[in-house]
Amino acid sequence: MSTPRGQLERDNKRLTGRLALMALGSFAFGFALVPLYDVLCAVTGFGDQKALARAAEVAPQAADESRTVTVEFVADLPNVGSWEFRPVIASMQVHPGKLYETEFVAKNLTGHDTVAQAVPSVAPGNVAGYFHKTECFCFTPQKFAKDEERVLPVRFIVDRALPRHLDRITLAYTFYDQSIRVGQR
Amino acid sequence: MATHAHAAAHDDHDHKPHGWRRWVFSTNHKDIGTMYLVFACTMFFVGGTMALIIRAELFQPGLQFVDPQFFNSMTAMHALVMIFGAIMPAWVGLANWMIPIQIGAPDMALPRLNNLSFWILPFAFLILLGTLFVPGGAPAGGWTMYPPLALQGGDSFPMMIFAIHLRGISSVLGAINVVVTIMNMRAPGMNLLKMPMFVWTWLITAYLLVAVMPVLAGAVTMLLTDHFFGTSFFAASGGGDPVMFQHIFWFFGHPEVYIMILPAFGIVSEIIPTFSRKPLFGYESMVYATAAIGFLSFIVWAHHMFTVGMPLAGQLFFMLATMLISVPTGVKVFNWCATMTRGSLSFEPPMLFALAFLFLFTIGGFSGLMLAIVPADFQYQDSYFVVAHFHYVLVPGSLFAIIGAVYYWLPKWVGRMYDQKLATWHFWLSAIFVNVLFFPQHFLGLAGMPRRIPDYATQFADWNMVSSIGAFGFGFSQLLLPYIIIKCVKSGAKAADRTWDGAHGLEWELPSPAPFHSWESPPSAAVIARGAEH
């Protein structure tokens, strides 16, 4: 306003500095959204990747024989041709609280020794908190020799606390070749 | 460019550099504003050509003119060019020209930074448009750049990211300049609640820009490191989540929508009172409504991505927050209507564009309200209904407001009056064809036609043909705008200082054309009082 020139220039510099800090803060905030996103997933249990990709520790539960839930298995590949990947059975009828085991089959067609990692996902997203895997080939990277075919086991329990309106769960794996990623490290 | 040759002739003590140095080294807010506007107009026709390629291909079912990959490039590039190259620079150009003279300041607060923010732009768009010529073609994964599709763009991918970075820096610098100018450079007596609405809306827009453009910069940086440096922010194979990109992108993207429309609210709030010969109804409620819209824009982003799967509580929150925005927006629409009530209305070209804005933007607002309803959105998602919605708010919304602003202030800029009859023709052709172009897209979307496809089922043929006819009519009508401006600059009749008899504001206290240097000593209290009658 009606301030002398030097004063005005100081004011302009100060406000410019503050706004530049605000812009830098926004840039940092964009990155801060990454851990915030994980925290939100962990709190709500919604599509929580961290929980899906590690072994669950479940207290033993009595099987709830009164309920039957269909669990479907889906195998997916990010691109065609270099792997064969499929579930041994397409779906299972399970009782909540009881431990089950099923298998997937993977074959390395890349023509060389490599490492691959399966990334799990369950649908609908809000059952992530009720679907416990006690053992899964997805927890660690899997080494495959050239042309090797292997059977990969999964053991899981559907929680008894699963909301009653849910009667169908899809467990899907995408099998990623990790050789590039591992090679870089 | 001849604009300023005239400005010089009228003001003796103006001394300014001549030739190319005047433009390349310019620190004058009016020259920089002109450069922004010329740049925006150029990009508008580049983006418009892309739109016509899209509409030509969609004129009939089947593939006639372009291959699907190039078609997808056109949809992505049309959006990037129009949003970042046409609409946003046009607003910054108008801000440069008008804010200092509306608040009684001699220039922008940071003139050198102003030069830098403009001159980054041509290079950013040289890089972006350069992608059309690299192997693999221009970005074809949509302007939203969702991974993993965006990462498969070949050579165009890093170029697009670099162009966005540059463009973002330009925006943030421009926004900082606007805030500092408004906060520190106002004439004595011009307190915040005396400022014209255009200045107010730009102040809030500038804060939105500073808050969200860096978030976009962060998101595209993550894309870049995912692709080239082995990070996995969005790569599922390394524990990342592609859906997270959508969250970060739309945290920028929704405020960005308001960045493109808030200054339009300001323009309409200047034009309607002038041609109603009445002060703006509810000035303070306009200011608070603008601020409320700015705030709400930060908490509604997930309505762009309802179908990715989110908890019910999330869907409800984002649905209700989105609907809440219609309250302050409604306040504005009713205020404009109340301003016109019992006014002495006249229908010069700026008023015609402002009235079309009022009707057609409101239609876009209503279809937005429909899209906010979660169960309905599951049906409308990624259909032509969405295309119709955002084009209604952007074309007869933002674009009409920009054209209205040009017709409102052009006599002040060049000191000459344009051909009002031709401008009225421009209006009627635009207003009719824009509806022929976009209204049928509502029907297409409701009938299930998806967006971003080069070919479609035959049941969509008729409305697509109508829409394409509208597109060509609208596109070619826009050629009138540069013609009218050039004709005005070259041979318009001398314009009065107060061009419009109902106009208030400090810009009308200056001679026409506005001298190269204006308000070197601040306007007196009496002048401000006369100017600030809202």
Classify the secondary structure makeup of chain A into a structural class. alpha+beta
The CATH architecture of chain B is: Up-down Bundle
What would you call the shape of chain A?
Answer: elongated
Determine the most extensive contact between two protein chains: A-B, 39 and 42 residues
Number of helices of chain A: 3
What strand order characterises the main sheet of chain B?
A: 1-2
Number of helices of chain B: 18
List segments of chain A where confidence is low: pLDDT < 50 over at least 5 consecutive residues.
Answer: none
Number of domains of chain B: 1
Q: What is the oligomeric state here?
A: heterodimer
Residue share in helix of chain B: 55-70%
Q: How many DSSP-defined strands of chain B? A: 2
First-residue to last-residue Cα separation of chain A = 58 Å
What's the name of the CATH homologous superfamily of chain B? Cytochrome c oxidase-like, subunit I domain
CATH topology of chain B: Cytochrome C Oxidase, Chain A
**At the first level of CATH, what is the class of chain B?**
Mainly Alpha
Strand order, sheet with most strands of chain A: 3-1-9-5-7
